[in-house]
Amino acid sequence: MLRELLGEPSRQDNEMLLQAMNSMKRTLGLLQRQMEQSGDPTSDFRKAEILTHGLMSSLTELEESTFAAAFFRKKVHAKFSEEMTGQERADYERYVYFYKNGFIRVFSMLDKLGNLLNDFYDMNTSRVKAHYSYFTVLRQFRYLKIHDRLADRLFELKDGFREPLDRLRKRRNTEVHYMNVEMQDDLWQKQRALYGKIKLEDLDEHLDDLRQGLDMVCRSVAEAFEYTNQQWERHSSGK
């Protein structure tokens, strides 16, 4: 959708995004088959279907926000806030909007994935913490000592992307609980600047963190759904 609005060609999914989307599509097929066979008297399969559709939409929105942030970042050439033209200032503000939307969606996506895994595997994580996150669900896998292969892989991804995720989390927390992240950058630069000149934050470094967040989400989704698909197929075949 955003690419069309920006006059850009349609998205060409990279390998990890394609793998994540295909694993969820495969899950939808398995759920549909189960509903046709059982009638889904408890509506559990229908709920899982709705949650999976929602996750696919959310992943699309995260990818589009990342793309749009990069699109507008290319239009910003000034090094200092005071040197931006009116149009450049507008493009910078659009970059900030989509960048913030992106890093907020990284953690929203992970929490939705955690919620879905909690339902898939009857983990009752809410007994541990009423308002739990994706990372709480991961710890619950270890606490319950279930599905070790999946848990190990998801922990590997979490640890492998620890540094960019930590930076994104700090910026998300600042944005949600404290102040706008771009204003925090301005405040920090103002304290260091000579003659009140404010240098822009490192846009490329921030974008790289966002891209790594998207990558981590795609890989985690693919691992979770591919493992779940294998479990369901094995169960349905009686093996």
TrEMBL record:
Pfam families: HEPN_Cthe2314 (PF18730). Residues 52-229 form the Cthe-2314-like HEPN domain. This is Cthe_2314 family HEPN domain-containing protein. It comes from Paenibacillus enshidis.
